[in-house]
Amino acid sequence: MLSLCDSSDYPLSLSTGPWRHFRASFGAVVTAVALRSRHAVLYDGFLLGGLTALLTSLADSQVRAFRHTATLAAMKLMTALVEVALGLSQRRDNTQRLYEAERGKSPPRRAPGKLEVLQETLREMGDFWGRGGDTGTGAPVTPVGAVQLQEQQEEIEAVMNAIFKGVFVHRYRGP
User: What band does 41 get if pLDDT is binned at 50, 70 and 90?
Assistant: First the structure.
């Protein structure tokens, strides 16, 4: 007798209402974890490292249902990480552009306090993650925020590569 895991009727492939709802909700949970933690928890090295290890282990399983579940979760996580990386890139570019545009204006043409607000925003970007910020020496703060966002983007790209190699390349390699 075949068990549920050995048959083609494992939960994520069933077309009954409760399992369709579970499949959609499962994908939404994986996506929500990545999107909601994009500002802090995502970069602590624990969450993404643990998820990557879990998905890689499930993808290596002998149980077909675990392999398929890991693949679905990996696809949803990768999609969410692409959104986070895109947001980081846009945030870095916009902040840098605004700061440079305001700094390039002559002092009478600058909006009152706007340069200071942009400097504070860039300082917070560096300090929020526990690195950098203005030291009070008058040194420009722009590189701190830009470098910090670049590091975050590189970390996300490294995790995406690890998931891709651990789940997809391993699973779909040739004979």
Answer: low
